Each structure stands twice: as C-alpha cells, then as structure tokens.
Amino acid sequence: MRTRITIAAVTAALAVTLVGCTGEDGSADKAAPTKASTPKASKSVDYSDAEKAAGIPAKPDAAKRAQLIRALSAIDPTLVTDEDKAVDNARNQCSTIKGGGNADMTAKARFSTSDHKVTDEEARKINIAVSSVLCPN
C-alpha cells in the first residue's frame, strides 16, 4: 500500500513539473527560465528520495550494470534487447521484490515484450538475478 501511495505521489509531482514546463498558451517555453520560474532545485532530490522510499535502488554503476545485463541475458537474450529499459525494469522490480508484492507475476508483466513472453520459470530466475545483483539488502 505504501508503495502505491509513493508511486502516486511521484506521478503527481512529475505531472506538476511537466505542466510547469509549458508556456501560458500550452507551448514549450523557449525563453531561458528565470530563478523565479525555475522549480525548486531539490525536485530531483525529492524524486530520488521517493524512489528510495519505494524500494527502487539507485542507477547501477557500470560494473553492476554489466553484471545485471549478463545475468538477464543468461536467462534469455531478448530480455536485454533494450539494455536501458532492462535496467529500469530491474530497478523497479526491486520495489516489488522488497515490497512483498507478487514478484513473479510482476516480472512476467514488466519484462515481457511483443517478441518474448516471460515464462513462470524465467520470472523466478529474473527475480533471483535482480535481487542478488541490484536490490539492496
């Protein structure tokens, strides 16, 4: 429940931020933002805090990223066709793993693509790989 509230809060904050990026007529504001019109500099810090509260780990360094890509690729190479998306999916999967949700079902939904539907066994392997490589203890 706490995760859903945090995700809703992050979504609302991002929506407000995006609305603030357009001019009065709805077009993108081309002028350089002034200090008065610039959102608080802590917005990115707030987002990171929200991610942390939701159980989403920080973006991995190059070595940990490579380790994660290798682990997912060993399960099925199509899981890492888009490596950036695979890493983002893995970071978000930590939230489900640590939050007590149905991690296998979520992994199937999160990592499946039009080219590859994740099986139950692959979902279990994905959760093992993600939790051992990326999720904080």
Principal-axis shape:
globular
What structural class do the secondary elements suggest?
A: mainly alpha
How large a portion of the residues is in β-strands, by DSSP E? under 5%
Instruction: Tell me the distance between the termini.
Output: 21 Å
- DSSP E strands, number: 0
Largest sheet: none
* Gyration radius, in Å: 18 Å
Overall pLDDT, averaged? 77
Total of domains:
2
The run of helices and strands is HHHHHH
Assign a percent range to the helix content: 55-70%
Query: Which stretches are poorly predicted, pLDDT < 50 over at least 5 residues?
Result: 12-25, 27-46
Tally of helical segments? 6
Report what the structure shows.
- The protein is mainly α and 137 residues long.
- The chain folds into 2 domains: 2-53; 62-133, no CATH class.
- It is 61% helix and 0% strand.
- The protein has 6 helices and no strands.
- The radius of gyration is 18 Å and the shape is globular.
- The two termini are 21 Å apart.
- Mean pLDDT is 77; it is low at 12-25 and 27-46.
Offer a few descriptive terms.
single chain, 137 residues, mainly alpha
Secondary structure: elements and pairs:
Elements: H1 2-19, H2 43-53, H3 62-75, H4 83-99, H5 103-111, H6 120-133
Helix pairs in contact: 1-2, 3-4, 3-6, 4-5, 4-6, 5-6
